[in-house]
Amino acid sequence: MLGVLEAVAVRASHFLMEYFRAGRGVDVVSRKEDDVTREVDIAAETLIYKMLREAFKEGGVLYAEEGGIYRWGDERYIFVLDPLDGSLNYAVGVPFFAVSIAAGKHREGTLADLEYAVVAIPPTGDVYTAAPGVGARKNGKPLRRTPRSNIVFVAVSNSFPPKTCEVVRRLGLRGRSLGSSAAELAYTVEGIARGFLDLRGKLRLLDVAGALTIGKYVDGFRYVVMGDTKPHSKVSLVAGDVDFVNAATTD
Questions:
Q1: Are residues 98 and 121 located together in one domain of the fold?
Q2: What are the backbone angles phi and psi of residue 237, rounded to the nearest 5°?
């Protein structure tokens, strides 16, 4: 399964970079609460759905950003997809966004089902993967968490939640936001950042399911999801090393 997922993510990455360089797909199709859907979101999702359905003809359930839930065949597999995490970056010309796909045997319809994952970052060419028996990898090489900074990725919208500011100050960390939760969390799994912090209750699990699944295979990485673990849920999330997660989740 992992080989297929990686091939799909790489193909989608090439598609997105072709669109990005040409300035295509930025027009807004719809708005819902804090979410904006652009032409490129729909195009990338449609491309990936078609590839997954062709590769896994026996059946699957795809939880996706724009199309809701796609079902086919006997629904034996679950797929959780964000075809373009960081669409605002994409739209304004900032080359930092990601493709996230996670998968597994369809049982509960939650994060617990997910065993395989790919997070591709098209502008850098980096591809993070994970699978049973293989573990986590970056660009084909084993991925081991090597802490290297006091950075914490924090989610912002119009303001910082007070709890976020308090945690960052108390731990003496430096907050950063790059505009793609999937990529930021993959970097946190790797140890580029010490932690990832989103306490708004607005983070879509679709965005980070791939990186969280990869993190399951990496020693020293922990996370706490505050909310429902079904793919379309919006939650708060704390992730990183054990000390960071414990400190950030303690009142």
A1: yes
A2: -145, 135
